[in-house]
Amino acid sequence: MKLDGQMAIVIGGARGIGAAIARAFSQEGASIVLVDLGKMKPQLDETAREINQKGGKAVALVADVTDEGQVNTMVDATIRRWGKIDILINSAGLRGPLVPVQEITEQEWDAVLAVNLKAVFLCCRAVLKQMIKQKGGSIVSISGTAGKEGMALRGSLCAAKWGLIGLTQTIAREAGPYGIRANVICPGGMDEPELRAMYAERAKGLGVEFSQLEKSVLEQTPLRKYAKHEEVAQAALFLASSDSSHTTGEALNVSGGRLMN
Question: Are 128 and 171 in contact (CB under 8 A)?
C-alpha cells in the first residue's frame, strides 16, 4: 500500500474533498486524524466511523484552524498519540461573497482569508516543526481555479487562493532541504449541490441565466464535466505518496482541462 504505516492529518475532513481524501488515504494504509469545526461534528464522527468500520484507523478532532491555540493543541495531541506526522492535507475552505470588490465588507474579506490562507499558514507552521525533526513529510493544500485566474465577483477568494499557492511554493523552497515536499491541487468545478447553488447566485450577480453560465463553464472545460471528490482525492494521493517523490512546489490542475498552466 502506498501509505502503509504513515500518519495523515486531514483538515476539513468532515465531508466533501477532505472526506474523500481521508477515505482514499486510509485504503492505502494511512492512519487519519480528521479535523473540522464543532458544527461539523456529526459529519466528522460519521466519516471517522465509516473509515474504522472498513478496517482503517481514524480519529475525529474538533478544532477551529483559524485559531492558533486550537491548531497547536490539535497538532500536539496528534504527535502524542502517533509520535509523528507524515502528511498534512489542508482542505478547509470558505467561498465567501459573490459581489464586486467594492462591495466586499471588511468582515467578509477577513473571514475568507482566515479560512483559506491564515488557517493553512497556522497548520503548516505547526506541522513543519515536527516534519523538520523527522526530516521528511508531505503537505498538500487545496486551492482551485480561483488560485490561478481572476474571477468576477470572487475577489476575496482569488486573493486567498493565489496567496495559498505563493505560500506553498515558499514552503517548498524552505523545507525542501529537510526532505519535506509541499504542493497544491487546483480543482475545477466540483460535482456537488453547493457548486450549483453558487453558480446560481453568481449568475444572478452577473445578470445572466444559470443555465447560460453553467453551459459557458462546461464549454471552457475540454472534458465537459465537473470533477468528482474521488478524482481530487487520487491527485492528493499521488502528491502525498512516494509516487511524486521528486515533485514539490507544484500547483496541479484537476480541472478537466479548463486550466493548462
Answer: yes
CA dihedral 44, 253, 175, 180 (to 10 degrees): 60
- 29-75 residue pLDDT tens: 999 999 999 999 999 999 999 999 999 999 999 999 999 999 999 99
Q: Whole-prediction pTM value?
A: 0.95
Q: Look at the domain 7-190+228-254 and name its fold.
A: Rossmann fold (3.40.50)
Q: What is the pLDDT of residues 199-211, one digit of tens each?
A: 777 788 778 887 8
The residue ranges of every structural domain in the chain are 7-190+228-254
| Cell numbers describing residue 108 | 467578509
Do residues 6 and 30 make contact, with C-beta atoms less than 8 angstroms apart? yes
- CB distance 43 to 22 below 8 Å: no
Query: How far is C-alpha 52 from the geometric centre of its chain's CA atoms?
Result: 22
User: Which residues of 28-147 form beta strands (DSSP E)?
Assistant: 31-36, 57-62, 87-90, 137-142
C-alpha to C-alpha distance for 211 and 209, rounded to whole angstroms = 5
3-state SS assignment for residue 11? strand
| CB neighbourhood size of 197 (10 A) | 12
